Description:
single chain; alpha+beta; two-stranded antiparallel sheet; 32% helix
Amino acid sequence: MENSIKKIYGNSNTKGRKRQDDINQEVINYIKTQEGYNELIFEKELKLKTPNAVGGKQTFKVDIAIYDGDKLIEVILNKAPFSNLKQNESNSIGSRVNEVFRLVNDFPNVKITWFTFSPNQTPYFKKDSLVKNIEI
């Protein structure tokens, strides 16, 4: 999995849907190798209804939903930042807390798992989209 993720980061110059889809697929490929997961159903980019969520929208998009038959048993949330890591570090923590609150009221028995990919170096972009420096 590590080499596949390195390849995805190395071949991408955008934080677009294609890169996210590739990362989601690599996570699915990895999870299916784990005991008990091969026979389960995986759905990427699934929008869940969250009518009891505290504030915000009444839907929540998850990177990967895992079903045992028609029962949702696990949600995978991938974090794969591509740039400006230091600037967005505290935002990332807030996002994770919010994600739990968005899901836990409507899906109390569903396991929530995060996969976080952090590259060794990332570009730091200025407002004009030019690279200011490389973060290490």
